[in-house]
Amino acid sequence: VQLQAFGGGLVQAGGSLRLSCAASGRTLSSYGMGWFRQAPGKEREFVAAISRSGGMTYYADSVKGRFTISRDNAKNTGYLQMNSLKPEDTAVYYCGAAQSLIYYRDYTRYNYWGQGTQVTVSS
Q1: What pLDDT score was predicted for residue 25?
Q2: DSSP-derived secondary structure letter, 1
Q3: CA–CA separation, 9 vs 5, rounded Å?
Q4: CA 60 – CA 2 distance, rounded (Å)
Q5: By C-alpha distance, which of 31, 14, 34, 11 is closest to 114?
Q6: Is the pLDDT score of 44 beyond 90?
Q7: 2: three-class secondary structure by DSSP
Q8: CA 75, 106, 101 angle in degrees (round to 5)?
Q9: What is the phi/psi pair of residue 89, to 5°?
Q10: What is the sign of the dihedral through the CA atoms of 104, 118, 83 and 80?
């Protein structure tokens, strides 16, 4: 499956962005999905994950209550709605697809990745 992430940009603190992750090649419903981010000089960190059906969602403590992960399997697309953005949310955001979400926080367990989209939050 090929993934393409888009929707990043520059936003002021307190603002919102919605990231999208479009899949092609295979149906996205066969995979759990996750969003990770990587700031300069830091490791890729878990942000959120969602089960194949969308019935289960998981969040990093740092984004809980501000970010919402969702998916539309009919459109083969996943989303990350980001509200109340903070400067520390600045990073390149990546979407990934995993055959199993048992280790949803571990980016090495994801089978496919999109190319990343830059999110910059100004103070």
Answers
A1: 83
A2: -
A3: 12
A4: 25
A5: 34
A6: yes
A7: strand
A8: 45
A9: -85, -5
A10: negative
Residue 77's pLDDT is 97
pLDDT in tens, 101-112: 999 999 999 999
Q: What is the predicted pLDDT for the residue at 80? A: 98
Given a cut of 90, is residue 91 above it in pLDDT? Answer: yes
9-12 vs 117-122, strand pairing mode: parallel
Rounded Cα distance between 73 and 82, Å, is: 20
Query: How far is C-alpha 18 from the chain's CA centre?
Result: 10
Q: Is residue 10 a contact partner of residue 17, using CB atoms and an 8 Å limit?
A: no
Q: Which residue has the tokens 């393409």?
A: 4
pLDDT tier for residue 26 given thresholds of 50, 70 and 90: confident
**78, 107 in Cβ contact below 8 A?**
no
Contact yes or no for 119/6 (Cβ under 8 A): no
CB neighbours of 71 closer than 8 A, spacing ≥ 6?
A: 28, 33, 50, 54, 77, 78, 79
